[in-house]
Design goal:
With 294 residues, the chain is α/β, with parallel strands linked by helices. The protein has a domain at 2-155 and 186-215 and 264-277: NAD(P)-binding Rossmann-like Domain (Rossmann fold), CATH 3.40.50. It contains nine helices and twelve strands. Helix 2 (39-49) runs parallel beside helix 3.
Length: 294
Amino acid sequence: MKILLTGAGGQLGQALQDAKPEAVELISTTRQELNLADAEACRSAVQQHQPDWVLNAGAYTAVDKAESEPELAHAVNGGAPEAFAQELERQGGRLLQVSTDFVFNGTQGTPYQPEQTRNPLGVYGASKAAGEEAIQSVFGAGGRGLILRTSWVIGPVGKNFALTMLRLHRERDQLGVVADQVGCPTSTLNLARACWRTLQIAGERDMPAVMHWSDNGAASWYDVAVAVGQIGAELGLIDTPAKVQPITTSDYPTPAERPSYSLLDCTSTRSALELDGEHWQQALKAVLQQAKTP
């Protein structure tokens, strides 16, 4: 099985490469090697490599910056998936698109089901929703374009909330962290396993066209920040955790509005993949144990 991977330099891309099954021929591309904002470059990559799958783990993920760069965000998050889908539809091959909880507005207060209507709040969510819509428009219900939504991605490399909090626990005595946004962290280690399992199972039987994957449980950003301090101290990564104070979203204004509740219901995906989830605190511990930070 030949896989064209985008976003190889990102935190998920690195985890996917580390977890690659032996039987997979992996063509890894970084943003320098494949500019996802260039639709023609995306088509050319499919033409050149003729993969069985494109695993699109690359994305424009700067949520706040997207508000001032909407054209770039839409080119990367909407245009690239459409270009991959169009070329794969022409010459054969399938697409696994990694998407986000930000396609929902977070107002319902119960976990989101995969089949629910998209209703994003900001440019980032709208751009990712556009990518999903393009894939479904090109492939229809044929099962050749799969969407795997996830949330609050954290990993032992790259830029993410867990590593930022670990650094701040080292540097400060007190932190203020938003406590009124609820979702669930997702370890890149577990997300990579889910992606590879999806490709394996999809070769054997039909899969749901849209799936949800996060770690188990629910948390606010405040909860995660407290846990980073506790686990970091337990692992000897910090001396003494900072005192974390809960604050509200209004106390910490950002350019982009974020969903206040974006928990994803992963029940059907866990059943389809035959994979049990791991509680986010255990997953966080595994991330911090492998953390490559100074």
